[in-house]
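Narrative of activities, Objective 1.

The group set out to show that a structural description can be obtained from nothing but a protein's sequence at a throughput compatible with the screening campaign. Below is one input-output pair from the validation batch, recorded exactly as produced.
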Amino acid sequence: MTDDATTGPPTTDAVRIALVDDQQLVRAGFRMVIDSQPDLEVALEAGDGEQALRLLADHRVDVVLMDVRMPHLDGLSATARLTARPDAPKIIVLTTFDLDEYVLEAIRSGASGFLLKDAPPEEMLAAIRTVHRGDAVIAPSSTRRLLEHLVTALPTDQAPDQHDALANLTEREREVLMLMARGRSNTEIATDLFVAEATVKTHVGRILAKLGARDRVQAVVTAYETGLVRPGS
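Output recorded for this entry:
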């Protein structure tokens, strides 16, 4: 296999990003947009999941943009293996609408969110910053529509356990989860509920623990799959 990885020198403050995609032109376009931002930098590139896992074992990054379809090791398998590591980076899965089932599986495997490959540059940059910050679900205009399509189109094999987990939530926690599912940030939820942002953070932490969710996106998927939040609501 030709090693088409690219690594860059570490900096102190910028969010370090890995680009994992088998199309070099795609990576070049993403790199141009990302490196134009003073707070972001592409630290690593890889052409498939196998190469990414090898390089990420030795290079620290904060966020990975991971394509789904790649040779040698696809993005789903790479995501599952990567998120199983201690101190794993956040992963944003790159997809198109015809890969819906794979996207949901990637999120269940631990990805922090997803982004359409043809999304405008500003949506990609916002997604990277949001996932790195960790206090909001990715919320470009396409995200909620895609999530709703996923959970209505696919069968669910974990619904009983998920319903049991929802039963353990307090009324306030269910309310916070519903707002999370609508893409609201902690600050926005605090404003909606007339409470302090620190209180919202406490609720979110308890929700994730009770649902066994790695992050907010996985909790939102549960909210849709169990019917707590319905498409179009």
